[in-house]
Structures are given as structure tokens and as C-alpha cells.
Inverse folding.
């Protein structure tokens, strides 16, 4: 099984390929773009990972994005509403981006990758935990994730 993981549009855009549970390739976009903390679409990182794995996008079984856009949008709206009217300016800046791009991430990813394959969306903090545990040498571990972004949860333990 081949899984392509994608992270972008927040900070440190990156991609990784896992084959049968083993990390095959991983790269941050900034290594190619030379822009520190590049948060854009990780086209170069994805291309690198596919080349390192000796694959094309057609060989990938699953494409996974690191968070669930609908849940994150719900949280963002709730925060803006609860802090209204102080959040007015931030709300006006964020809403067009979400309505134009972020809510349509599935279509965006499929178009950029030239595929009609489904896109899976993992929970943000599960993605953090998976990135730490799944490539570790351990059979068991306790993972604590503390983060101020993502969907609703900001602290998890598993």
C-alpha cells in the first residue's frame, strides 16, 4: 500500500510517501523553493517523493491531507462569532480565502495532482501523532500533542 501525505497552506508545506507502513520519502517544500517556512502547494516536495519512491500518482493507493477543512472552518467561524466585533477585520480577511479555496480542498488537490482519486482528510492532531509514532522504532508509545491550531482539539493524548 502506498500513501501520499500532504501538508500545506499553514506553515512548512511538505509531502511524504509511506509504503506498507515504512517511510520511503519525505521533504519540505522550502528545500526546493528556498523560501523559509514555505506554506504553499508542495509541488516540488510531492514530485521529489514520487521520484524517490519510483512511482507516479497513479501508483498511489491513498492521498491524505493533514486536517479536516470543514471542521477547521467550523472552529474558525465559532471563534470569530464569539469574539465579535473585535474579530471583524480578521473575519473579513479570512472568509474569502475559505470560501474561494480552503473549503474546496479536495477538488484543488485532485486538480493539482491530475487525478480523480479520492482524498482522505485526517484529524490534525492525529496527523501530528502519526508523524511521530508511525516512523518510530517503537511498538508502543504514549503521545502527547499540544497545538493551538487544527480543528477543535488543541491537546490530545494517545
Amino acid at each position: 500500500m502506498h500513501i501520499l501525505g500532504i501538508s500545506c497552506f499553514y506553515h512548512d508545506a511538505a509531502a511524504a510517501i509511506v509504503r506498507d507502513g515504512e517511510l520511503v520519502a519525505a521533504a519540505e517544500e522550502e528545500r526546493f523553493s528556498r523560501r523559509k517556512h514555505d506554506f504553499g502547494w508542495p509541488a516540488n516536495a510531492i514530485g521529489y517523493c514520487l521520484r524517490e519512491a519510483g512511482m507516479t500518482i497513479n501508483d498511489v493507493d491513498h492521498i491524505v491531507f493533514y486536517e479536516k477543512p470543514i471542521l477547521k472552518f467550523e472552529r474558525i467561524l465559532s471563534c470569530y462569532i464569539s469574539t465579535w466585533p473585535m474579530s471583524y477585520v480578521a473575519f473579513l480577511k479570512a472568509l474569502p480565502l475559505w470560501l474561494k479555496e480552503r473549503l474546496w480542498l479536495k477538488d484543488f488537490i485532485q486538480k493539482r495532482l491530475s487525478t480523480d482519486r479520492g482524498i482522505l482528510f485526517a484529524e490534525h492532531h492525529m496527523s501530528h501523532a502519526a508523524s511521530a509514532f508511525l516512523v518510530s522504532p517503537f511498538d508502543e508509545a504514549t503521545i502527547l500533542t499540544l497545538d493551538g491550531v487544527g480543528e477543535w482539539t488543541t491537546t490530545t493524548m494517545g
Helices lie at 30-33, 43-53, 69-82, 88-100, 105-113, 124-133. The two ends are 25 Å apart (CA to CA).
